[in-house]
Amino acid sequence: MADASAESIVESRSLRKEYGSTLAVNDVSFRVSRGEVVGFLGPNGAGKSTTMKMLTGYLRPTAGAAMVGGVAVADDPLAAQRKIGYLPENAPLYDDMMVVDFLHFVGELRGVAAAERSNRLKVVCERCGLGDVLGKDIGQLSKGYRQRVGLAQALLHDPEVLILDEPTSGLDPNQIVEIRQLIRELGREKTILLSTHILPEVQASCSRVIIIHEGALVADDSTAALTEGGAGAIIHVVVAPADGTPPLDAAQVRSRLAAVAGVRAVEPQASEGDDALAFLVRAHGAQDPRAALFRAAVSGGFVLLDLHRERASLEQTFRSLTTGEHRADA
Question: What kind of fold does domain 232-311 have according to CATH?
Answer without folding.
Answer: Alpha-Beta Plaits (3.30.70)
